[in-house]
Design brief:
Mean pLDDT: 92
Number of helices: 6
Number of strands: 4
Helix content: 55-70%
Strand content: 5-15%
Shape: globular
Low-confidence stretches: 179-183
Strand order of the largest sheet: 1-2-4-3
Length: about 180
């Protein structure tokens, strides 16, 4: 893996850049203009992203449109972002892939770990903003990021903090991964 680029992306600058890109691409999927965020601190930018995703998801829920199509669009947007990161960082194995995921989530104040095929989220910045329905919609972004970074696989949540659980838990199955072993 390209360590220098990883180091840059894991900095405050990298976190700021990540949130700006996520905000722009997510707003595009929802068909709205992204807030500029010019002059925002990192914490204000993250809050603006949380608010954007919450507001747009709630509007979508109220509109009774096809939720599956929105989730597919969010997934594909996030897959492209994850795949781009994969191209830039050049992970050599699944450990490198998880390091990329862990860095991305740390940048947006989500603390996660991997235990076998289970992904656990112990703290999530967005849980203070999201309802269970909003979380369910936006988790398509998580699914796409994981699949893009790993070049395949399926992430399926079965517990969420927004559903009054202590932590989020998801199963991640590498079905089309480039790598067959963990290391």
């Amino acid at each position: 893996m390209k360590r220098l680029l990883y180091h840059i992306l894991s900095s405050k600058f990298g976190a700021y850049l990540e949130i700006k890109i996520l905000m722009k691409q997510t707003a595009k999927v929802f068909g709205v203009k992204s807030p500029t965020g010019i002059g925002f601190s990192l914490s204000k930018l993250l809050k603006a992203y949380a608010q954007l995703t919450t507001d747009m998801s709630l509007k979508f829920i109220e509109s009774n449109q096809d939720r599956n199509q929105l989730q597919q669009n969010l997934y594909h947007m996030a897959y492209r972002l994850g795949n781009d990161l994969r191209w830039w960082l050049r992970p050599q194995n699944n450990l490198d892939c998880f390091s990329i995921i862990e860095m991305l989530y740390r940048n947006i104040e989500i603390s996660l770990c991997e235990q076998s095929e289970t992904i656990c989220v112990h703290q999530c910045y967005f849980s203070d903003f999201y309802t269970p329905e909003v979380c369910s919609i936006i988790s398509a972004i998580d699914q796409g990021i994981f699949a893009g970074v790993y070049q395949g696989g399926t992430l399926s949540f079965y517990r969420r903090i927004t559903e009054e659980y202590e932590k989020c838990e998801a199963e991640f199955i590498l079905d089309d991964s480039k790598y067959n072993e963990k290391g």
